[in-house]
Amino acid sequence: MGNLQTLINYHAPLNYAQDLNEQIIDQGMLEHPGLGQIQLWKIKESNLPMLFSFHAHIFEKDSSIIEIHNFRSSLQHPNLIEYFACTGSKALNIGNVQSQQFFFAYYSKTLKDHIQSTNITEVQIWKIIEEIVDVMVYLQGKNRYHGNINSQSIFITDNFHIKLLDKIGQKPNRYSIKDDVYDLGILVIELLTKRTNQLNFISQIKNLHGKFTLQLLQLVAKMIDQNPDKRPDFNQIQKMVINRFKEPISFINPDKIADRNKLTSRISTQAPLLSQTDEIKSIQEQSLQITQLPCLLSQKCAFPSTILRCKTTKNLQDQHSNNLSPYKNKNFESTPRKIYSDKMPQQSTTDYRQSPQNQRHYDNQITPRTLDFNIQYQLN
């Protein structure tokens, strides 16, 4: 079978200087719905919670038993199941694979049992989400993932706190964290509907409108997006959960973001044109002010205004009526023009003016007047 190696966590209520088999008692095997076949143990002469153990096969090139033990002993989070010890043996017949046995604290009640036996309110659902997300943020920061988030693999303490078991000795790939996010979304739908193995999750979310807040339903919809790249990670989910009362949880459409970026770049390229348009508008406003200058001068100004007064001996209106051109006078009737087939005789300008009719016309047009202008200054 190979040599057996035992490592005990110094944070556990066990004596790491003593052999593990001398400190625990076998309590039999159990087929766990979420963890598979496990073995139960009890610490001798102690009322502490029971232990359970399971076997895992890990390639030597991935991690050694000492590396896994040291790393798992360093993980300390209130929502992680307490790690106690591990044993490892190298079997010669299975190549470079170590068969390792891990010991953890055992909790008899799962989240599945809690869902089926209790009417869970939305406040309690938010509390469960907060605790799961908090421990997953912790694991994500340690470059680890869960790999099996469901109601049967999550334990609940007597004080209704969540306990999770991480994926031992395995580092996440590109989509491991996003797969955990999707599994959490399916778990929340189970909390909302108390049903599993549903086919159309989006339709189930639509049917829950009015029963739960829009914040919760939108968060679930983001977590179960079919495109892993569009799903948020646990750090982003934690910010959404914390700020759910301050900022709305809205869907982010990458196409709309691309269109908005194109529009922003287009506006930046059109900035010189906009500046030229502003200059044209300013010039138009200045020209409008110049055209309105006489109206502005009629109002009160800071400088003295000049008033022109005209003294005439006759009424200007009567004089104007007398000075009308004969062609504008309604009583004036012009004689019909004569059309000569031959060339008209040339006549000097002096002879033309000396004719009585033309001389009378010019006398009526030119009438001398004597105007006396007095300039007065009026100070405002």
From TrEMBL:
Q: Enumerate the InterPro entries for this protein.
A: NEK_Ser/Thr_kinase, Prot_kinase_dom
Q: Which GO terms describe its molecular function?
A: ATP binding; protein serine/threonine kinase activity
Q: According to the UniProt record, where is the region Disordered?
A: 318-367
- Which PANTHER family did the record assign? NIMA-LIKE KINASE (PTHR43671:SF106), SERINE/THREONINE-PROTEIN KINASE NEK (PTHR43671)
Q: What is the protein's species of origin?
A: Paramecium pentaurelia
What is the protein's given name?
Protein kinase domain-containing protein
Q: What UniProt keywords are attached to this protein's entry? A: ATP-binding, Kinase, Nucleotide-binding, Transferase
Q: From which domain of life does this come?
A: Eukaryota
Q: Does the keyword Nucleotide-binding apply?
A: yes
Start and end residues of each Protein kinase domain = 1-252
Compositional bias of type Polar residues: which residue ranges? 318-334, 344-367
